[in-house]
Structure formats: C-alpha cells, structure tokens
Amino acid sequence: MEIDIIRAVDPQVADYIEKELKRQQTTIELIASENFASKAVLAACGTVLNNKYAEGKPHKRFYNGCENVDFIEELAQERVKKLFNVGHANVQPHSGAQANMAVFLYALKPGDTILGMDLPSGGHLTHGTSVNFSGMYFNALTYGVNEHGCINYDEVEKIAQQHKPKMIICGASSYSKIIDFKRFREIADSVGAYLMADIAHIAGLVAAGVHPSPSGYAHFITTTTHKTLRGPRGGIIMCDEEHAAGIDKAVFPGIQGGPLEHIIAGKAVALLEASKPEFKTYAEQIVKNAKALAMGLMDEAMDIVGGCTENHLMTLDLRKYNKTGKEMANVLEKIGITANKNTVPDDPQSPFVTSGVRLGTPAVTTRGFKEEDMIEVAKIIASAVFSSDNEIGLNNLKERSLKLCLKYPLY
Ligand SMILES: *Cc1c(COP(=O)(O)O)cnc(C)c1O
Question: Does position 1 have pLDDT exceeding 80, yes or no?
Fold first, then answer.
C-alpha cells in the first residue's frame, strides 16, 4: 500500500496521513465544498505524471517528451466539452481561484468595473472582495440576496444599468437556490458586459442535469473539480472557440507555469466518472439529501436561510437561539460533525464569528447516506444546538454520529 511506501521513508508524514484517513472515516463531513474522490482519481494523482514538465498546450509544448501527457490532457479537454456542452476547455488551472484569475486577465484591464455577489450573501473571495486581487485591481461592485435568500435580479439589473460593468459574475460559494443564468445573460447583454458563471460548487449538479447549465448563456464558465464534481483539487475554464486562444494564453504564460499533468489525469478520470449514469443518480441523491436535511432541521424548530434548499447546501440560521456560527461549528466538531461557520443575510456578527453554519450533502452522499440518515443528522445537529454545554449529552450525540459513519464505510 502507498502508505507503507511513505512510511518507509517518512514515518511522521505517514502517521498524519493515516490519522487523516481515520478522521474522514469516523466523522460526518458536511462542509459543502468537500467530497471524497474515488480511489481511481486519487491513484491517478499519485503517478509518474508528476515528473513531467509540459508548459504549453497538447502538441504545442515548450518541452520534449510530452507525447503521453498530450493525450491525457486532450482526453480531459474532450470530456469537459462533452459533459458541459462547451466549445473549448482549458483543464490546466491549478485551482478555482486560478481559473477566475485567468479569465479576468484575458477579459479585463486593471481598473475595469466588475459586478459580483457580495461575500456575506454567499459570493466568493475572487468575485471582487477587497482582500483579493479581484477587488484590488478592478473596480468591484456587488449585489446581494433578498430576505428569501434569493439573488435580487432587479438589483443586479439596476446596478448594471447604472455602472455599466465590463463583466458580471454569477455563481457562489454559499447559495442554496437555482441560479437563473438566462436572466443574468439578458442583464449582461443589456449593458454590453461579459457574463462569467463560476460553477465551482454546482459543477457536479450541472454535469448531471440536476441544476440548469450556464452553457449558451455565459461567455466564460469556470469551475473547481474537487467539490460536487468529485475530482482532484483543481480548476477548469470553459468558453466558446472565439475566446479559446486568449484564455489559453492567460492561463499560460499569463498566470501559471507548468501544468500539473498528474492532477489533469485525475481530472480526466473524474470527468469520465461524472459522465456515467451512476453519477446522475449520485447528483440526484445529493439534492434529495439536502432537502431531507433542511426539512429535518425545520421539523426540529431550526431556521434555514431562505426556508428551503434547491441544491446541495443550506445555511443554518442560529440567531433565534442566540448562538454564533463559530460556537456551533466548534460544538459540531466535538460531536463528530464537520461544518463551517457562515454569515447569514444581514448578519449582526462579524465574518469571523457569524450567525450561521453552512451544511452540504455532497460528501455524505458519496458515502451512501440516504434521506433517513439525513433526518438523523438533523436531529443530532438540533440536539447539539439545544445542549451545547451539556458534556454527557454531547458524548451521546458523538456516539450517534459515529454509528452513522460505521454504517457507511469509506475507502
Ligand atoms: C471554491 C470556490 C472557488 C475557489 O476554488 P479554489 O480551488 O479553492 O481556489 C472559486 N469560486 C467559487 C464560487 C468557489 O466556491
């Protein structure tokens, strides 16, 4: 086994990897951006492809000896094009943030105006926040959500009309409703803006047809490959042929050096997996499980932002119980449930404290959790909110979490 090979050289690192495997096996993973890649994906990432320099594009490299990685990268590109119905795919971005950066480098000039969802409403750092390059190099404006947790499309339109951004960005990290890509494109067209759809979170749902696709609406589609798509950590950019050469140039030499061909091989394997009927069943179950968790929580007198979920995630709103997101995420960790604190709309707390906890079902669905398991998870979470300072109660809840994990062995 790989772990023995590592142990023979570096027992310290091997120990921590083994402990991490145990942690993943024995805790309920509800971080909405995480998943468990298949053994085939993990294996592809740990291969001799790691050793190869391949700057450039397949068959147009700056190094020799690329005949094998060329075919692997082409396979990955073709699979993206087919799965997402797009004209061009660049599979080299090292991450979702790099994918977004490359699109900005290609489509924008420093000082241009961009319009993206604000961070507290569920947007991503790379969509124009002040601590990120996207907020430093561009004039970043934001839109938010209404009291139902839905994008305020009229507000998007109004800001767009008023400020004429060069690019509108849709897609989010913590948004539980279906995104209306058609409406976004209409708004973009009305002011001559590019539309970028960042489907990092929902890519697996889009691939499976469980969420509408931005294909045909967005000029640029970016994604990560490790969230609902269940591949290795990385990014992808999709666009029409007319932008292909410019996007490729923006990735390399624009912002990156050599592509990670071992990770690209992992992406290719994950994309093949995502094209199978089993993956469609998986994606459908992610959504069913999210709905079951939301219903279960509301049955236990918990508040969910927007009152329901239409995708793979939701935000538990703790204001009613005077708890903070930070406090509850730590309590959940004590009982074997991993989740992250998250702001709620009009959050009275700071982003470091927050009043919410984001809960997602992609990872537990990979393990095999079904609706009845999500109801049990909802009961465990609600009990934790009510008995967060009762040690005996928490120990009991931890046992219940572990029991669920043992029901669905991992790796
Ligand atoms: C996760 C995420 C990213 C960034 O992905 P990284 O691989 O962590 O860089 C970008 N956009 C959105 C909407 C995300 O949710």
Answer: no
